[in-house]
Structure formats: structure tokens, C-alpha cells
User: Which sequence fits this backbone?
């Protein structure tokens, strides 16, 4: 399994609507990707390594897929619509990363 | 719930032993933190936004805790031992981020 991480770098003064991201954008992504996105997670950045330092990223999501090919197959046909929704919640440009899920969940 | 993300920036030529990280370091962290770490996840960076670009981070872990206080309570007393294990798998210095878990898992 792989995860596609979408990371929005914290930038003073930048706009990021966490409610829209959680309630509108991410459900849109999942609806369009269907089963090619197994599930997703959403984070809101609170702080860096010390409590009074800003986070590296103000918002993040992680899309879990069986493979890079599954992600591309699900996301590709809807890329224009999904990317076109970004200005509705932020003026930031995200960093993308693809990772292998080494440990999915260890309690 | 919060997550503490430990992010190791990809750096050409740097050392990172993914097996040690998965099999030794992360179990050590969980053993020392006990129930103050609800669970953790581990990722291995594969690529950036395009298949031939390097990932932003070569390795990541995310520690899920009830609160920042729970994390500090569980990690603090063992910080020296845990941080002292880092040279056993990498010569990189990680970036830390604390996030609010907005969506834990949405299928």
C-alpha cells in the first residue's frame, strides 16, 4: 500500500480554510477517486518541535491506495476538477509526496 | 487526538536504515511510551510529485496520542534514550510537527 501526502507549507498570512478542506474538498477527492482511494486522513498543523514554534505544514491529507498506479488511475481523470477546487480553501501550493506504507497501524 | 510527526528530510548521500527504524527504533519508542502512544505509523519516502523526483522525506513516523500533554508525559522521561538511538539508523536530523487529527480515517 502507498500513501500520497499533500502537504501545505505553513506561511504567515496565507489563507487556509480547514472547514472547507474537511467538509468539501476531501469528500470531493474521495467521491471522484472512488475505490482507488481506500481511505484518507486529514491533519491540521498546530506546532513545530516546540510549543511556540509554527508547524512545518498548516494542513495535510494522506490518500491511501493499493499502488501508485491505482492512485494515478483514480486521480488522473479528475485532476483538473480537484486541483481547480484548491483556490476555494487556500492560496498555498502544496508539496506532494508518495510513500510506501511500512507500518499502517501499530498499537 | 493529536499526532506527532517525525519527518526525515531526503538528503542525497545521507544514511537511513529503514529496517532498523521499523524493527528496532519504533518498537523502542512504543515500548517506552506505553499507552500514552495510542498507535503509530511508519512511512518510507518513494517519490515527490513526479515519479522521477525525490521525496521530501526519506522516512516518517506519526505517533498518535490523546493530547500534547499525553505525548509529553510519555516521551519526556525517555527522550534521552530514544533520541540517543537515532544515530543507529540515520545521520539526518528530523523535523517535528504536532497536528490535530481532523479526520482519523475516512473510507
Assistant:
Amino acid at each position: 500500500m502507498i500513501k500520497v501526502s499533500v502537504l501545505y507549507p505553513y506561511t504567515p498570512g496565507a489563507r487556509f480554510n480547514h472547514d472547507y478542506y474537511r467538509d468539501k474538498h476531501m469528500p470531493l477527492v474521495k467521491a471522484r477517486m472512488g475505490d482507488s482511494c481506500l481511505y484518507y486522513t486529514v491533519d491540521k498543523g498546530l506546532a513545530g518541535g516546540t510549543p511556540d514554534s509554527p508547524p512545518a505544514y498548516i494542513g495535510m491529507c494522506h490518500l491511501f491506495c493499493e499502488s501508485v498506479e491505482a492512485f494515478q488511475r483514480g486521480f488522473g481523470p479528475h485532476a483538473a476538477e480537484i486541483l481547480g477546487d484548491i483556490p476555494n480553501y487556500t492560496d498555498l501550493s502544496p508539496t506532494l509526496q508518495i510513500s510506501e506504507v511500512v507500518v499502517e497501524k501499530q498499537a
Remarks:
- The helical segments of chain B are 18-33, 68-75, 79-84.
- Chain B touches chain A through 39 residues (CB under 8 Å).
